[in-house]
Protein: True protein
Amino acid sequence: QKRIDNKEVWLRRARLVAREFAFLEPHREGLFSPASSAIVTRLIPHLFIQQRSLGWSMMAVDIADAYLTCSQGEPTITSVKLGDATLWFRLDKCLPGQRDGSSRWFGEFSSYLHEHCNTEQMPQMTSILRFPEKQGAGLLHVDDLLAAGVTSILEGCCSQLSRKYKISVQWIRSPGDELNFLKKRHVLISDGELSIEVHGKHLDRLLEITGLALSKGRSRQSPMPTGNLPTEQEDDPLLDSDQGSKFRTCVGILLYLQADIPEAQFAIRYLASYMSKPTRGSWSLLRHLTGYLHQHQSQCQCVSSSAVGQGLIVRNEGKHEAQHLVEAFSDADWAGCKKTRKSVSGSAFLVNSQLVYSASRTQRLIALSSAESEYHAAISCAIDGLLIRAVVEFLYQGEVAPLRVLVDNQAFLVALQTARSLGGSDDEQDDGSNEPTAWELFLSVMMQFFGYVAAFMEAYPAALSAAAQVAVICIVLCFASCIFRRDPQPTVNVHIGGVTVSGTPSVPQDYTSTSSQEPPSAGCSSAEESFDAEAWITEAAREARMQSQAKLRGASSKAKSSPQSEKRNERLHMPGSSNDHKQLPKDVVIIGSDVASCTVPTMW
Structure:
């Protein structure tokens, strides 16, 4: 399908193509060819509508037989069979299908633009180029070029290309003009609005394959049905080979269109997960999505001009007011898939409050918490956001503000801000007038602490519950020990004969130490200074004698044959008796003693 004299016509032609296999030369290098990405395809239209007031235009250039204009990199021959004869030919130009054809074409075409149009390629993405003094920008996709800039510069570029290549050009110069690029229709509605529509033939193909072209389906208000999905049933049988091939064809078409239908990206991603093993439930979801697209086929995206530095949520102020603003919104559906328990990352990118790209991706890892899933989603979002910001800085006139990543998970947000991964610019941090006070630092530390606690609670609830129970038990035990604790009392064990007496010495209130006693050791109280250990041991010996007498009386009933005289003699020679009342018994052995940190044995 081509446009000749502002009329769409169909042309049929035949071309010679090559068929080259990678297994014949597996170690061949230098075959990479840069191509455009869906991340940046909408930036050129956005730049055009932003600079429309400066007299910018937009054009789409198609180079005919691009590969046939490139010379072979090395001598190449091919064979053609005509009946029983085999003819050999030498190829001087590249053919579609050769492995190095695309790389050689890109290298020669970009070099020609640089030499004759003074274009400059972006280092991070060489398929993006700009004209001198940022008066225009372009996007290369194989043999197609989409460019926006000052009209005189674009016209000079077309004249240079027509000298070497056979080109066809479509222009947007005034409201009502339109062009097609990558099978998308761009229409300038007004000087401040540009609509981007997907080609209708893709939807017609979907309706034909799914069988909804001639049938009247029910009204579909959302890309996916609500409630339980048919793929979540246990008895979801697989499709046969023919229907499975149709399913993969439809999903391939949807993957090509998903960048231009952001409301259906989640559903398309979900259907793409069943491409290896399509089921009857996935086929039902495919028909539901096709019916939704058919019902809303009149909808399209519109890019409009906006103020520089004014985002959807963030607003640049002060000296950053004139800087272009890139906002990146990140979100995650934690364990959204009930079968694999994998999370889904969602992101949207806005330049000066205008949507330029959105995506829905399945995370490769299984997140154990919502904060972890938000972390993976934010990292993926930041990577794409940095690329978009680099493209904006390379193409747009003026400065670009730092990337703003917006996340709705508080635990992840606090952790990320603590690590200084997010925050103000270097100028804001270096400003001495914004130094925080002591109270603000204290509040910041407390907020960080509670943020870490919240993140830990969300990530490990079972471990936190067990730790809390252990802490409560320990606090209760310490409190009980403090309440019911008794003061330790010194204990003296006296062994006399076969009897051991244990007790705590009591210090009489009216007892005064004699001058013959040794001075007390350091650290003893006044009551301990007046304590007489010899008197206390004599008392202990008397108690031991009484216990010994009790034992002898108990033993006398069992052994009556023992003479009373022997018992009396025993009692007379007992320690502490009247015969030895004032002397310390010889068989008294001090086993251990401790009187309020004063060591008794040193006094004896």
In short: The first strand starts at residue 2 and ends at 4. The longest helix spans residues 370-395.
